[in-house]
Amino acid sequence: MTLREKMHREQQLKTLFNQAQSHAFEYSDNALERNVFPSAQALADLAKFDEPLPANSADAESILKQLHSYGSPASVAQTGGRYFGFVNGGILPVTLATKWLTDFWDQNTALHAMSPITAKLEDICEQWLRQLFHLPDNTVAGFVSGTSSAILCGLAAARYRIFKNQGWDFNKRGHNGAPPIRIIAGHHTHGAVIKAIALLGFGIDNIEWVECDDQGRIVPSAMPVIDNRCIILLQAGNVNSGAFDPMHEICDKANDANAWVHIDGAFGLWAGGTKQLSHLTEGLEKAHSWSVDGHKTLNTPYDSGIIMCCDKDALVMALQASGAYLNFSESRDGMLYTPEMSRRARAVELWAALKYLGSDGVDELVCGLHERAVQFADELATADFEVLNEVVFNQVIISPSEDDEISQSIIEAIQQSGECWVGGSVWMGKKVIRISVCSWVTTDEDVSRSVRAFVQARRSVCGK
Ligand SMILES: *Cc1c(COP(=O)(O)O)cnc(C)c1O
Fold this sequence. Notes:
Elements: H1 3-13, H2 15-31, H3 40-44, H4 60-71, H5 93-105, H6 116-133, E1 140-144, H7 147-165, H8 170-173, E2 182-186, H9 191-199, E3 207-210, E4 230-235, H10 248-257, E5 260-264, E6 289-293, E7 305-309, H11 312-319, H12 346-382, E8 386-387, E9 395-399, H13 404-417, E10 423-427, E11 430-436, H14 444-462
Parallel strand pairs: 2-3, 2-4, 4-5, 5-6
Antiparallel strand pairs: 1-7, 6-7, 8-9, 9-11, 10-11
Helix pairs in contact: 2-4, 5-12, 6-12, 7-9, 7-11, 12-14, 13-14
Bound molecules: pyridoxal-5'-phosphate.
Residues 87, 146-148, 190, 192, 235, 237, 239, 264, 266-267, 293, 305 line the site of pyridoxal-5'-phosphate (PLP).
């Protein structure tokens, strides 16, 4: 049998896909109960993947079997209810099923001509998100891999516009001899924003840093005088404390001065889609660009970032490519709003999530994460753990000990317990535990069980 015959056969028989499904279902049930972090044995078994590049075609069933036998156990059980590391989201069943279906489509979504259905659903997502976040009517959206990429797009649009306002066409003339522009950011700005500043050639040393308060929010009165050369970076959701920068006053001043404001709201922008928590994002509609993830708070599969921008011309001018074979249409051509050309149909999962939840469901999901974060903080405080932040959203910062080394040992003991997984961070110079409640799966009991694991870990390290 030739290789092509073999593949045709696999496609016709479909047993491969049944096998994948049965492995996946086994994984999914298991993930609710197994150790959150892989066991030592699972990690040691990763050596099974060490082999030279094979010369011959392998059997497809054995590839899936190998992945399930040695890959599944070495994954982090993030889809269970007790993963609180970083700010990683869970996955809504409907989005996962949608992904399976659309994987069979294998669409490239660069142009309308490549995938009318994806172009259509990108349009719908754009409208729905604009409505959900209360953004201006002229806001457009680009569907990118994640917030890191979305920030890059927002700042590229800002760069185009701010230079253009000085009579400088950045696309043609670049940085050489360009008029100076100013970058203003709070001390708590996320690393992905700093990276974008470096990548886009602004220079980290040129950032005008602004003082933040004890929650990591920019202090508005500490802002420098804003003029029309400024790009201002605000955040909706501090990656440690979950705090939101005050937006009204700074955006008003920026608009008066014809400056640009980008809001990084990777996980926090979703507060704007709720009733109870939307006070956190008040004023955000007065900014110019916003970066947000579907794959964190909304619980879509990974690879779902969104850049939203109310200056379509600036965004498209900053990101557009040209080529004789590129026929832009009257309809939506997704690549005009993204750095990539070829992209998978990620917006379909986002559409499925929004359609499934509706605005009430988004409210319930997001507020549910907040409620369980508050529960976490309350139960930990009762167990004599020091809570260092105001739990305004889904993040909780815990100081397990006054001594950084002991804190580190407690973090490791929690991680090794397999009961739950939390990461460490540094907050106001102190080693801390950072808890992020990000998955719809997490129940009240998951939180209580995790608190018991904290208590047990402290006892094993401190003897009390
Ligand atoms: C996660 C995060 C980012 C980066 O987003 P990715 O989707 O991981 O690229 C940027 N800013 C904040 C505040 C984040 O939480």
